[in-house]
UniProtKB/TrEMBL annotation:
Residues 31-40, 877-889 have a biased composition (Low complexity). Keywords: Coiled coil, Glycosyltransferase, Transferase. This is alpha,alpha-trehalose-phosphate synthase (UDP-forming). Residues 1-40, 867-891, 937-981 are annotated as: Disordered. It is an enzyme of class 2 (transferase). It catalyses: D-glucose 6-phosphate + UDP-alpha-D-glucose = alpha,alpha-trehalose 6-phosphate + UDP + H(+). Its EC number is 2.4.1.15. Pfam families: Glyco_transf_20 (PF00982), Trehalose_PPase (PF02358). InterPro entries: Glyco_trans_20, HAD-like_sf, HAD_sf, Trehalose_OtsA, Trehalose_PPase. It comes from Chlorella sorokiniana. GO terms for cellular component: cytosol. One of its GO terms (molecular function) is trehalose-phosphatase activity.
Amino acid sequence: MSSGGAPPRLGRSDSERSADGGAPPAQPDSTPAVPEAADATAASVAASRVGRLLLQRLRKSQSTTVLYGEPEGAVEQLSLQDGGAGIFPQLESGSQRLIVVANRLPVSAYKDRSGRWQLQVSAGGLVSALMGVGNFQTKWIGWPGVYIEAGPERDELTAALHSEGYSPVYLDQKTCDLHYNGFCNSVLWQLFHYVPLNIDSKLSETRMLQFQWGAHQLANKIFAEVVLQHYQDGDIVWVQDYHLMLLPAILKEHKPRMKVGFFLHTPFPSSEIYRTLPVREELLRSVLKADLIGFHTYDYARHFVSACTRILGLEGTPSGVEDNGSLTRVAAFPIGIDPDRFTEALEMPEVKANIAQLLNRYAGRKVMLGVDRLDMIKGIPQKLLAFEKFLEEHPEWRDKVLLVQIAVPSRTDVPEYQRLRSMVHEVVGRINGQYGTLTHVPIYHLDRQLSFNELVALYAITDVALVTSLRDGMNLVSYEYVACQRDNAGVLILSEFAGAAQSLGAGAILVNPWNINDLSQAIEYALMMNDHERRERHRQNYMHVTIHTAQTWADTFISELNDTHVEAELRTKNIPPALDLEAVVGCYKRSRRRLLVLGYNATLTTAVEAPRQPKKHFDQIQALTRVNPAAYSCLAALSQNPRVDVVVISGGEKQRLIEVFGDLHIWLAAENGAVVRPPGSQDWQTLMDAGSGDWKESVQLVFEYFCERTPRSFVEQRGTSLVWNYKYADVEFGRIQARDLLQHLLTGPISNAPVDIVRGSKSVEVRPVGVSKGASMERILQYMAASGASGGPGAGLPSTDFVFVGGHFLPSTDFVFVGGHFLARDENVFTLFEGQEPGAGGSGAAGSPQADTLLSTLFAQDLEEMPTAITPGRTRSLSSSSPNLAALPEGQPAPPVALALAAATAAAQQQAAAVQQQVQQQQAAVQQQVQQQQAQQQQQHFGRRAGLPDNGRQQTGASALPPLPPPGRNGGGQQQQADGLPFKVPPKYLFTCTVGRSMASKASYSLSGSMEVAQLLHKMALADGIPTSQLHLPGMSTSASFDDLLQSLMMAEGSMSTSL
């Protein structure tokens, strides 16, 4: 694909300068290698990137001493710093392979007179860029441009291509036509250049789009098969242009660790234009699987990020697009040309002869030049009309200036292009007829392509170049013109809608081609410009063209791709590994008493679009989120086992949990665990003291004010908290409003209220100090202990399943599984079971009152330096007399706080050691007593179990439950002794698991989503001996396997965003 312009037709001439699909760049001389040390930090990677760019600049300065003046030894001195390594690590030449995947190979195949296949390299900036990179063993993969049936002839062509490092992708003619001429050129290319999609007048036309989309998918799969055949571990794969937007996802599906870069050589439209594409989500999600996505300009990159934000609901960051912790880097990489090719051509005798001939032919007249494909987005009619207006208003110039317009034919079989050609010919004829003479015509129009030498000579004698593209990816004609104007210093008139305007805007005259008057005045200004200004403008443009070459573009992209991959490795180093389901089930079988703690959103819920219904927007899909039926079926079966305790904890309202799980014999905790409903009870118990709630009225007024300012936002009134939710609002506007709302809350009337402010992905919640899932889980465990000691849900088991704690026999839970999609501040539920204090802020570190006071003081001093958008997770609640919430931004360390946390952790470890020693002594003392009472207890428990209804579960009412200990304001306060919990901490088998979050977590393992949670629950149910027939859903055949159920739900969940 050319860097802009219309999509060229298949089988075009070899000299056409637009490289179809482009070729990939290679790695720079100083690409940072993957750090050998396991504790390498992201800061070192950032330093290596900056250092690499500085070194690259110095290297370029030595080759262009006219533009810079650094001493020759500067590069060597810089390279030798730190022993020549560290900041500027070098790759061994040829140590990596670069696989360039483009729609077309950079060569054209033809047969010579003897019938043997010959290859001719196509001309173009992309080809020159990637063929000039010497750091890699480059392999090209693409369509060879000819249709050949399988047989000896194709084998001969394949062998000829392989000998030169090319791997062909063969497509049949029908697939290629629907894929390339159909979907790519008629749909994607037009839309990316702001040409609206065709309005279908017949149903058959809409079906044709479906056929084209199917062929496009098939073509990308065929390309992927060839890439995977040649891929080796460590290779870099660079995918080029819009023809292969589906390829990154296919490759990553087979090779998740593959380095994949994607570059788009056309503009990327505004999200309002792109969202008209019927398959908008599929293309965006596929491209986002690449590690690095490149565009020519920042505007195109910004439009892409905006499309991902508004269409997919993902998080746009300055670095790229973040999808639930997984970051795809998006950046601008302006392409260049090979200027040496043009400057060397100026010294050729043939070119010098052409220059002399043209100067003699056009003597006494100013020469203006336009070189374009005959395409609707090139603005040729606008250029001609502006020139006509100039001649009309300035008759003195009619015999002193001429315009040479080269219009290379393109897509001559398309009616729209045929009409454009007729229009251009009509305008040229009218101008020449009105302002021409017997010896002179103002416009020289050519409907053909010039040879390279002819074009270089024409560039060299041109005084003013006119580039009036209505929309162009980059337009390298402007670069080529500047490269050939080393001596003449001509003037460049450049459309502001061409990508080159952001690179050459300092020296060019930028114009709006739709404004004929301004374009005409720009022509006058260029012709009348004085020599000093011309040369100064040209100097700036020539500096850019000679420094930012095609090879530099290729080097930079590949180097950034390597850096991005290294950063991704560092970023994922702390991400918990995937949970081994079989290992968990094995421990589950060996355990005697089990506790399952599960989150609700994105853990037990899924978003499944109903079949045969219109495709829904991402916020509508989230609105239809429901409990995963497979997980519910397994939970219902597990809840009947008296050896299994299940706790479902949610941040939502209790009514929602009652509607879903009200019939199950499990523990339900709503509002982040502030209220709990024990098994078999219909009443909710309050675990966390909400205080007086005087702050609610003020917060309610602020939330309602922002609801009026933010369409489709709403307020959730919960028992202990208030939530402002903007998940249905415009994504970008909602985030701006959320930052403003945080400022109002932090500086408003509740600044001293005993509350925490928690910012979720698309919500802002105000809750009492100390309310978190970890703190509430600690209270639930105490409640379970009291319940078991009084003959509650823990009763009914053999005495061998009990331990003597606190004067009571309690169930000996030796298997604990904790899984959920929690905010960072709520991940203290993971650390709780490891013996750490949950804490109000979820730090997981135990602390003494002295440490709490120190932390409060430190955070109070840093409040003024806090960002307006508070990051939940790294928080520590203050006393009620102090400001409400202090949070450190992610990735910003606070050394004094770290010291305080370390001191608090050390104190906690000492206290835990003392507690463990005390427990060991107590166990030894009561062991003999347990043996004496074993027979009596065993008989009693077996008798009680025999009379239990509901499959062995004892039904208890609210009155049968023991009273809960008085709730604390700080969610637990000091580290609880072991005799306050129904099992020792940590238990024998402990699995903490974050669900659906590709980011660092306090959990030890990770699961991808609710389907994997359902699979784990299913395996546990089978381990309990529950027959598969009891796991089917209403409406499903009892003979249907669980795998059938998973298959029916997996497809939809794979396309939903787990960030609910």
